[in-house]
């Protein structure tokens, strides 16, 4: 059969005329010749390709979340571990966590993993959410993972699991990746200097060494290695237009304090790193400066020196410190099956602050949350805030009414010398003012017919307070212990205590 092209007749140069029902075959188009680049052009193309790859890497790295860490704080060591993601949960290596704290070893046998920490044996099984510690079952919040002989446990299980190994309490801040073993937390207070509102002074219960960064309108202090814990409120406000506020936050194993300011500030360290002063650059004290003692005078007599620890005698400024006793793992007295002393004292402290401030008395509640504070911490904060009156609050299920205590000081082998005061007997020069405060409050309680007794006792931290200091112990009005939680009863007592303090306010404010 002839092809279509052969059966078609060309008419001139314009087209092919084919028999009816046939079409000419399409004409082939010539292939384009390959484009040949010279060496210079090829180099430019390669460079653009490499730049594109580099940009993709930069974008992917910037979009990736930062590596998560768990910071561990203990008396033995402060250290950090990586947190890994498995099955959509946070995990940490148990062997690596315990290694800096004691003698530890681990061995895997198939799906089973055994860990010895000191004399404690832990037994784990891969993909199981239950372990055995010293022969007793322990539940995990997620499955145990065994990877190449490495045992991974869910981060959320540390609060319940670690006390089995360590024999003591631990506190996990899971969201921010911080783990506190025992009572190692560092607390702090912050206040604007009374004589200069451009100075913000931080007092810490242990030496700190944060990294400090300044930027317009802000000073940021980052604590990478210190077991710093939150104050009662994460936002602190100050009566200064230059330094209006500061905020505390935690994230990824670190703590941070951000200070809002309208003037550039610089940080100065003193008191072996326990005090940080933020001040304008021109008036910033030297980094190694220590506070100078006030010269002896009739209003500021020489006070005592004690080897460890000791307190610098400084002029006081009027301030009321209310201290809710106990807190955290220290529940205080079990007033009933459902009522713990720490909860009653906290509620009472907040109410007393309200009563005092309504009478124009600026008041700090020392423990405004369910936190652990040692007796030394409580005394330290009361003294460094230059309080005019310190009131410790207690609750009791026995007896009726209120008992007010002042200190019964221990025998001192030596007298105070120089600008320092002996820690065990720091209250000595303020005993008369403490007794006057107790008598004034007792008088107000008697007016509203609340049974009251004034007593002395060797109570801490009263012994360590350098200003007027009392302890108020509230008992139920009758046999019903639940009345300690009654807002009406607490209001009655708090109002009388506030009236008693206000009645001798002039004496407290004039005290050296």
Q: How many discrete structural domains?
A: 3
If you consult CATH, what is the topology of the largest domain? Aminopeptidase
Largest sheet: 6 strands, mixed
Molecular shape: globular
State the CATH architecture of the largest domain. Answer: 3-Layer(aba) Sandwich
Question: How would you characterize the overall build of this protein?
Answer:
- With 512 residues, the protein is α+β, with helices and mostly antiparallel strands.
- The chain has three domains: 69-181, 2-Layer Sandwich (Copper Amine Oxidase, Chain A, domain 1); 188-283, Sandwich (Immunoglobulin-like), CATH 2.60.40; 310-510, 3-Layer(aba) Sandwich (Aminopeptidase).
- Helices cover 22% and strands 30% of the residues.
- It has nine helices and 32 strands.
- The strands form eight sheets. Strands 27-26-28-32-29-31 form a six-stranded mixed β-sheet, with helices on one face. The protein has a five-stranded antiparallel β-sheet with strand order 7-8-9-10-11, with helices on one face.
- A hairpin with a 7-residue loop joins strand 16 (188-192) and strand 17 (200-204).
- Helix 5 (341-358) packs across helix 8 and helix 7 packs across helix 8 (487-503).
- The chain is globular and about 100 Å long.
- The termini are far apart.
